[in-house]
Amino acid sequence: MLFSQLILVLLGAYNAIVVASPLERRAAPTVTLDTATVTGVASDSVNEWLGIPFALPPTGNLRFQLPQPIPSYNTSFSATAYGPPCPQQAATFSLPSGLPTETVDYLTSTISNITGSEDCLTVNVVAPANATPGSDLPVVIWIYGGGFETGSASTYNGSVIVNKAIDLNVPAIYVSINYRLTGVAARN
Question: ∠71-73-78 over CA atoms, to 5°?
Answer without folding.
Answer: 145
